[in-house]
Amino acid sequence: MKLIATLIFCGGIVIAGAVVHAGTTHRWSAIRPDPERAVAVHSLVLNLGERDIREVPSEMPVKERSTCTCRQYRSTTGGTPVVVSVTSGPSGAVATHTPDVCYPAGGYKMVRAPMAETLDLPGGGTAACLVAEFEKTTAGGVSDRQRIRWAWTTDGKWTAPKNPRFAFVPWFSSPQGTELYKLYVVTPVAPEAADAPEPPAVRDAVASAFAQYSAVFQR
Asked: If you compute the radius of gyration of the chain from its CA atoms, what whole number of angstroms results?
């Protein structure tokens, strides 16, 4: 009897794991994204003041029918550059591969662990995100330190759950087939300013990026 009970218990664990995995990867249902929204999100060029804008190849892995768009916004007046990338696709693909995994794989060392942050958005409202810092030394001996903020949404409200892979299982968090969006906003940090407060202009640009992407979902 003990053997039978053990086999039943193990079988239940395997089935439960398969159900959760199928939910996150949409294995048992076709993802049905709103094509107009996806186009609007990926084609959005942010207004962050006087900046030269160019699309740049994303270094983030993209899988399972995901799409990623990445742009650099370089100030023409000497301000801090901002790199913004947005990824969309099935929740199982988009919820994973966060900076604390991707950047160390690219040679960066995490120098400040992810922390929850709430941004006050222009025009009202807030965005919940995670923020961390990564650093590596280039071949020329120059320190390259990056502050990265990231969050997810299905409806324009940015959230940053502790376990996004399970938080965004569609059966629990949103209708089956709903597309998940992930936003990265990356700003450089000068070595001598690592412990200094973030300049207001940089924080304003970050908040504006989140707000402008949120607005796409309200159209």
From this structure: 19
What is the SS3 assignment for 26? coil
Crossing angle of helices 35-43 and 200-216, in 10° steps, is: 160
- Residue 60, pLDDT score: 57
In angstroms, the CA 180 to CA 97 distance is: 14
* pLDDT, tens digit, 9 for 90 and up, residues 126-185: 999 999 999 998 888 888 999 999 999 999 999 999 888 888 876 544 544 579 999 999
Structure tokens at 115: 């922390």
How far is it between the farthest Cα atoms of the chain?
76
Degrees to nearest 5, angle at CA 116 with 114 and 121: 125
Note the pTM of the prediction, 2 decimals. 0.81
Residue with structure tokens 């742009």?
Answer: 71
Rounded to an integer, what distance in angstroms lies between the CA atom of residue 137 and that of residue 149?
21
Q: How far is CA 169 from CA 21, 22, 166, 180, 194, in A?
A: 9, 9, 5, 10, 37
β-strand partners of 129? 117
Amino acid at residue number 139: A
Q: Encode pLDDT of 50-98 as tens digits.
A: 999 999 986 655 556 789 999 999 999 989 999 999 999 988 889 988 9
Give the span between the Cα atoms of 66 and 172, in whole angstroms. Answer: 21
Torsion of CA 195, 70, 53, 154, to 10 degrees: -90
